[in-house]
Design goal:
Elements (H helix, E strand, L loop, with lengths): L6 E4 L6 E4 L10 H16 L5 E5 L2 E4 H17 L8 H20 L6 H16 L3 H14 L3 H6 L1 H19 L5 H11 L2 E3 L4
Antiparallel strand pairs: 1-2, 3-4, 3-5
Helix pairs in contact: 1-2, 1-5, 2-3, 3-7, 4-7
Length: 200
């Protein structure tokens, strides 16, 4: 049903889906995971969730949405020297892209049901249990940085919505030609009104 080579660790906030193929990275200590979770928690605490920076059709993109992508890129760059952290403007483009995909998925009736999302989350939780102890500890450090228990994390509405978004994206990619995914995203931009209120 799901690709078991990849465990999706979904950010607790907004639309951020931080997908890591855990076994492909070599993290020397748990501090990376703890610090990432802690910085995400700081973003959530410090940014007003009603601070809207853009609209895609009738859907809002918040400053927090953008900051999550910017922060994720920063931490990815710490893992891989071939990657660079991105600017606010680039993170805004990413957040708008995600919102475009979500909007189109809803328009096509591809948004997952509550049951589908619950089954997906249950699969993720079972997969986490199958990981080596060191990698389990990484996830626990991530939760500790967020200041949440595993139960709180998986039952939080923002986590549930983010996993639903991941499933909707997967469905849309299966329906579209994934080899021309970037062209498809450009096509979506022409279908929906995009209004940018703040670029920084």
């Amino acid at each position: 049903m799901f690709n078991k080579k990849t465990i999706i660790l979904t950010g607790i906030f907004g639309v951020l889906v931080f997908a890591l193929a855990i076994n492909s990275y070599s993290v020397d200590s748990t501090s990376w995971w703890y610090n990432f979770g802690k910085d995400l928690e700081k973003v959530n605490r410090s940014i007003d969730s009603s601070d809207v920076v853009a609209y895609v059709a009738d859907e809002s993109v918040t400053r927090a949405d953008v900051e999550y992508w910017r922060l994720a890129s920063e931490y990815n760059a710490r893992l891989d020297e071939n990657l660079n952290s991105i600017s606010f403007s680039e993170a805004l483009d990413k957040a708008i892209e995600i919102k475009l995909v979500e909007t189109e998925a809803k328009h096509q009736g591809l948004w997952p049901s509550k049951q589908e999302t619950t089954e997906y989350i249950d699969w993720v939780r079972r997969s986490l249990e199958e990981l080596p102890e060191e990698e389990k500890q990484h996830f626990q450090e991530y939760l500790r940085g967020l200041g949440m228990t595993e139960k709180e994390f998986f039952e939080d509405n923002r986590t549930i919505n983010a996993y639903a978004s991941a499933l909707a994206t997967s469905k849309l990619m299966q329906q579209a030609n994934t080899e021309a995914w970037q062209d498809y995203l450009l096509e979506l931009q022409s279908l929906y009104d995009i209004i940018i209120l703040h670029e920084k």
